[in-house]
Amino acid sequence: MNSTLVSSSSHKEAENPTSKQALFFNYHEFSVTKYADLGSDQETEHGGDQALCITHFPNVYCALGSARFQETRLVRIPRRFEQTVDVPAFSTQLPGREPAALVDNANSVNFVPRGVYQGQIYGMSSVSPLSGLMSDSEFQELVETINEYLLKAYTSTAGWNLVNSILDIFTFHLWSFVAARVFENPLLVLEDYVKTLNASPEFQERRLRLISPRKSGYLSVCSEKRQNF
Question: What distance in Å separates the CA atoms of residue 171 and residue 150, rounded to the nearest whole number?
Fold first, then answer.
């Protein structure tokens, strides 16, 4: 089987071979060369150009061995650090759309099963099963909304944080107790947003669930997907 995999950055390098700019990719994914071909139980070593790209992961947010653990997988969306390292901000690109993603020229936008690793089916590109459930625009809108809440919560010069800090100083920190009951904390509003999404007909029909970024310490956004691939 001849591989059609290339990095999406190769086209940019061809246009500007002297460019040394670092390009973003999903740093959660990794590749393996020892796996079983589809329809086989025997693991064999494959060439580097036939490596599987691991794009979905065990559900660490439920009990090991539980039915939910067996039935679901996680797709992890990474943080981006180009703008700031102080405010969490996540990639608005579906896995496989990043500038340095591994793409399959023949199936650039689809998750295509190629082999089995540790009992799970994977493809050879950076495209994950999530691409079959959400469009680029849907995904971008979702992550941009999350990023907006985080920006409001973590920007120290934002009006919400600035007023809170000043009042907290003048009231000897008593304001914090009052503010928690009077004003909406953007992080708590984000939690409500996640709950609303998960209860929506769109997510229910797709058997899709968003894991609150709080559970990962705001290091990644995780989408929980029922296995049917």
Answer: 26
